[in-house]
Amino acid sequence: MLSSRFLFFLSPILFLISTQSLAQPPDFRSYSCSSEKGNYTTDSTYQTNLNTLLTSLSSPFNNGNGYGFYNSSYGENADEVHAIGLCRGDVTGDTCRACLSNSTQKLTQLCPNQKEAFGFYDECMLRYANCSIYRAMETSPAFWLWNPYNVSSDVDGFYQELRRLLEDLSGQAAANGSLRKFAEGTTTTPNFQTIYGIAQCTPDLAEEVCSDCLVGAMGDIPKCCQGKQGGRVVRPSCNVRYESSRFYDPTTVPPLPSSSPPLSSPPPPPLSSPPPPSTRSRTVIIIVVPIVVSVVLIVIFFCICLRVRRTKKKLETRKLIPGGDDTDEIGSAESLQFDLATIRVSTDDFSEANKLGQGGFGSVYRGRLLNGKDIAVKRLSTNSGQGDLEFKNEVLLVAKLQHRNLVRLLGFCLEGSERLLVYEFVPNASLDHIIFDPTKRAQLDWVRRYKIIVGTARGLLYLHEDSRLRIIHRDLKASNILIDAEMNPKISDFGMARLFVLHQTQGNTSRIVGTYGYMAPEYAMHGHFSVKSDVYSFGVLVLEIVSGQQNSGFQHGENAEDLLSFAWRSWREGTASNLIDPTLRTGSRTEIMRCIHIGLLCVQENVADRPSMASVILMLNSYSLTLPVPSQPAFYLHSSIGMDMPLQSEYNSGATRSDRSKSNSVIVMEYETFTEPHPR
Ligand SMILES: *[C@@H]1O[C@H](CO)[C@@H](O)[C@H](O)[C@H]1NC(C)=O
Ligand SMILES: *[C@@H]1O[C@H](CO)[C@@H](O)[C@H](O)[C@H]1NC(C)=O
Ligand SMILES: *[C@@H]1O[C@H](CO)[C@@H](O)[C@H](O)[C@H]1NC(C)=O
Ligand SMILES: *[C@@H]1O[C@H](CO)[C@@H](O)[C@H](O)[C@H]1NC(C)=O
Ligand SMILES: *[C@@H]1O[C@H](CO)[C@@H](O)[C@H](O)[C@H]1NC(C)=O
Ligand SMILES: *[C@@H]1O[C@H](CO)[C@@H](O)[C@H](O)[C@H]1NC(C)=O
């Protein structure tokens, strides 16, 4: 009884252990097995010692020296194994331990039976040997890695600055006062490119030894990485790296202490120091192991309980955080920041073939990250009029808006004059490519169309009321509704008003951004916008979905009438069914008629007569609810706005390449200042 209970109690732990051991650690950046330095045989004492040592090195209870350096030895005489693990200076805590844990698995896999081996990831490195490696400088094997992108211009200027930076960093890292033996910093080239650099030694090295190692590594830079935007030299005892984009997190690197030379002060005790003579060590192990095991189990159990509780508590926050699946560092701009180099690689350097569309805010490209994830990258036209910090803050806010009917903003990239927004990729085309296409439209039966209407309404309601910010979309239209593989609608391009300073400079002119045929009259004519102007656009969209016709460019028989006028006339005359797309042969007529009714209510001229999105959802959900009778909608197309407005071609974030000549146009015009409502 007890045992089955105990097993039950254990099962989550066993499950955890088994699932964790199934996951393969990622490949090293590079590694080396020194087979000429000797082999050990399987099941030898050396192997047992090595395994014990590596397990203790990456155990969750080993904190190393507290700043990412792990040094220990285990065994005796010829079977003594020595290991050193080192995380990049900004990588700490769990990430560091996870990286080392991966390294221990990977290295023994890759170098079976080799006494000496060395491997590294971006975040950490691990080496082990049968001889003492503590405080011994090892410069080979050395690895050279470079970024494939070339420095665009003024290579000499770039290199002069780079050398100055790396010399400076090497000095800082090697200095007696530097406990971590790590330094990071940036410099700016003559043509205003930022170079990010790091230099690092294993912290067991004395100043001059570390310095020698780094000087040697720096000397390799011109050989490996001449003309490249990024490069690194990795040696067992030290490494240097530079890139044109940030590849480390400077916020987790504490400032260098100015006093206390580290090597003269006693180093913190290693957590798994060499065991004392064998008889004692055996008894110690025999007694300690069961205690340790039970303590470990209890601790694991509590961790799991805590985790479960924390996950529950965190669920809400997690949902709000993009990329939350692989990082706990949430809410910081850095965690959402992508490298320009990564984006360049993923979009094949913004190749024309990957271009999905072009519009008022910039072009959109399709990309694929190294992990296989598809993304859509919006390359903003340079002048968003916002400072870097404001831009980052706004991205953070917009990225927190997450709903199944919104296209998810995954992050951004901000480098030099480049400003990119990275979105999840939505596989199907935008709605306009389907609903206004005579052949594709026929595939969209009423059930699917209704699902699109309801989904869009839900997404909009979230933006208006349920999210922490009150977001007014301002440019809701068929081409901003993307359709995913399951034909769910996802609203794109929301929050653009936050990411762009629409009131130019501090003056009192503003741009109105919206699309002909979808803009509420009060917005188009007076620049007044509110949630109700989005409701108007939604109404137009509903009527378009029902009829399969575009509001602007609507044709019915010989009458050159816009969709809204036609809808209203038909409604009044009791012939509203004329509005229904003839390809819709199935589906509930009552439901379709109700949608026309709701659409008309949304496009009422009087703002107060339009329902809120919450009411719209209610109307869609409850057939018993009696709808108000609509009055004449706003036909602003016939009013004061003429076609001589300055027009800007539309930005299309759809998945298919847009035909620019066919796309709707965006009205951009100067207007009086308006203010975005404040977050609630
Ligand atoms: C390490 O192993 C090699 C090859 O087995 C051996 O020649 C060497 O003496 C060993 N070094 C130490 C310190 O035991
Ligand atoms: C160790 O084993 C590898 C193959 O596994 C072999 O190539 C190498 O020569 C061996 N080294 C020594 C010193 O025996
Ligand atoms: C360690 O490996 C796991 C897969 O086993 C991977 O998910 C994780 O990202 C790796 N962590 C680091 C820091 O390399
Ligand atoms: C960088 O320049 C070299 C020659 O100088 C060229 O072969 C290579 O293709 C360039 N790489 C890129 C990514 O432009
Ligand atoms: C650093 O410490 C070593 C040994 O304590 C000493 O010999 C050396 O002069 C020191 N270097 C500097 C720059 O203070
Ligand atoms: C590292 O390991 C060596 C050899 O096992 C030991 O002498 C030294 O005290 C350890 N140092 C630290 C900082 O752990």
UniProtKB/TrEMBL annotation:
GO terms in the biological process aspect are:
response to oxidative stress
Which InterPro entries does this chain map to?
A: GNK2, GNK2_sf, Kinase-like_dom_sf, Prot_kinase_dom, Protein_kinase_ATP_BS, Ser-Thr/Tyr_kinase_cat_dom, Ser/Thr_kinase_AS
**Signal peptide, first to last residue:** 1-23
Name the keywords, alphabetized: ATP-binding, Glycoprotein, Kinase, Membrane, Nucleotide-binding, Phosphoprotein, Receptor, Repeat, Serine/threonine-protein kinase, Signal, Transferase, Transmembrane, Transmembrane helix
Residue ranges crossing the lipid bilayer per the database entry: 284-308
Q: According to the UniProt entry, which residue ranges have a biased composition of type Pro residues?
A: 252-278
Which residue numbers delimit the Protein kinase domain? 350-635
| A GO term from the CC aspect | plasma membrane
Record localization: Membrane
Quote the CDD domains the UniProt record gives: Gnk2-like (cd23509), STKc_IRAK (cd14066)
Stretch list, region Disordered: 249-279
Reaction catalysed? Answer: L-seryl-[protein] + ATP = O-phospho-L-seryl-[protein] + ADP + H(+); L-threonyl-[protein] + ATP = O-phospho-L-threonyl-[protein] + ADP + H(+)
Q: What is this protein called?
A: Cysteine-rich receptor-like protein kinase 10
